[in-house]
Amino acid sequence: MTHTLSPIMAVHLSTALAALLLGPLALWSRLGREQRPQLHRWAGRVWVALMLTTTLSALGIRHSSLAIWQGFSLIHLLIPLTLVTLTVAVIAVLRGHIRRHRRSMQSLYLFALLIPGAFTLLPGRYLGRLVWGDWLGWL
């Protein structure tokens, strides 16, 4: 079975994977005795840019069989939620509300990357078919 990846899906997938890989570095750089604030700021800014690109590119990914409205499915509800949470996190850090910033960023990593990413790998989903092929078709 041949699968083609549209340009918008390629952008979405590559920025999501980059954010998935960069996230632990941003979080780790502020842990422990020896903190690395410059690394944290650099990684955090790049991570926010990746998340914005991932989130906005999701607007261009639609599927008629899963749609509840105009090609959008339930997972698209993460778009406004992610944009709001990113905004809250950035404003929080600018105002010195570090605890709110930390909670927002950790929540985004879990609820906007890890959990949705796991769902995209289910058999029958586009990315699931790309990764697993047909050998999981029996599930």
Separation, N- and C-terminal Cα atoms: 18 Å
Q: Helical stretch count?
A: 5
Helix and strand run: HHHHH
Radius of gyration: 17 Å
Structure class: mainly alpha
Mean pLDDT: 85
Percent of sequence in beta strands: under 5%
What percentage of residues falls in helices of 4 or more residues?
55-70%
Descriptive notes:
The model has no long low-confidence stretch (mean pLDDT 85). This protein is globular. It is mainly α and 139 residues long. 65% of the residues lie in helices and 0% in strands.
Write the layout of secondary structure elements.
Blueprint: H1 7-28, H2 37-57, H3 78-94, H4 98-120, H5 126-132
Helix pairs in contact: 1-2, 1-4, 2-3, 3-4
Considering the chains and any ligands shown, give keywords for the structure.
single chain; 139 residues; mainly alpha; 65% helix
Quick recap:
The chain is mainly α. 65% of the residues lie in helices and 0% in strands. α1 runs antiparallel to α2 and α3 packs antiparallel against α4.
